[in-house]
Amino acid sequence: MLKLLLGGVGLVETLYPERFMQVLTRLSYEYDDDAPTPKPWVVTAARLEGLVILTAVIWSALKTDCNCSLLSRDNEVDANTE
Question: How far is the first Cα of the chain from the last one, in angstroms, to the nearest whole number?
Fold first, then answer.
């Protein structure tokens, strides 16, 4: 469940970094006027952060899937030798 949540956050942050930051800024700060405009490097950093999160989640899911398939193959070999 946590992987799914983190994957969703990473995907949204990678695809829509400016909108993602606007929502988080609105939730995090109180201000009367418009929200402050982020500098261009902040948008790039947010996009990279989202990409890193998404990559980590996908890598973790693939690693878990690979380990499960290796375990099932080991069980088949053990069953055949008995």
Answer: 38
Nearest to 7 by CA among 45, 44, 48, 60: 60
Tokens encoding 10 = 């990473």
Domain containing residue 12: 2-81
- Structure pTM? 0.61
Q: How many structural domains is the chain composed of? A: 1
Q: What digits encode the pLDDT tens for the residues 12-44?
A: 989 999 999 888 887 777 777 776 777 888 888
Residue 43's closest CA among 9, 16, 11, 10?
A: 16
Q: pLDDT tens, 53-78? A: 999 999 888 888 777 766 566 555 55
Structure tokens at 43: 């948008």
Query: For residues 63 and 59, what is the distance between their CA atoms, to the nearest angstrom?
Result: 6
Distance of CA 80 to the CA centre of its chain: 40
